[in-house]
Amino acid sequence: MSEIPGWFDFPQVYAELVNTYPSESRFVEVGVWMGKSFCFLGECVKYSGKDIKIYAVDTWAGSDEEAHQKTIAELGGDDKLMEQFLKNVADRELEDITYIHRLPSVEAAAKFEDESLEVVFIDASHKYEDVIADIKAWWPKI
Questions:
Q1: Prediction pTM value
Q2: What is the 3 state secondary structure string of the chain?
Q3: pLDDT tens digits for 63-109?
Q4: Any idea what DSSP says for residue 1?
C-alpha cells in the first residue's frame, strides 16, 4: 500500500479482523481519504475468500487541517480526491465488495440498523466533539 498516500500503521489489526469474522460480516471504515487502509482491508477480504462487505464513509472534503486542504487543492477539489480513492479501489479490483457513503459520519451511521455491523473503524474528524459524536452514532451499530 506504499503507493497510496495516507496513513496506515495497523495492518495486523485489519488482517486479524478479517480472519476472525465470518462471511456475511459487514465492516465500515469512517474516514478513508485515498484508501490506503481501506484497500488493505479490501485485499485481506479478497484473499480470505470470505463474503465480507466493506463500507467507505467519507465526505472527501478533508478536515480543516492545512495539509489536507492543500492536498485537495493540488488534486483539483474533493471530487478529484474521491476519484483517486475510487481508482485505488478499482486498481485492486475491490469494487464488488466496496460500498460507498459520501456523507458526514453521523449521517452515514443513520443509514445502518442497530447491531447490523461487525466492525466500525472511526478515523474521520479528530476534533473532540466530533469523535464523541461519531462514537455515539456508530456504537449502537455494532
A1: 0.95
A2: CCCCCCCCCCHHHHHHHHHHCCCCCEEEEECCCCCHHHHHHHHHHHHHCCCCEEEEECCCCCCCCHHHHHHHHHHCCHHHHHHHHHHHHHHCCCHHHEEEECCCHHHHHCCCCCCCCCEEEECCCCCHHHHHHHHHHHHHHC
A3: 888 888 999 999 999 999 999 999 999 999 999 999 999 999 999 99
A4: -
d(CA 89, CA 95): 6
The yes-or-no verdict on residue 7 having pLDDT over 80 is yes
The Cα 105–Cα 109 span in angstroms is 6
How many residues make up the chain in this entry? 142
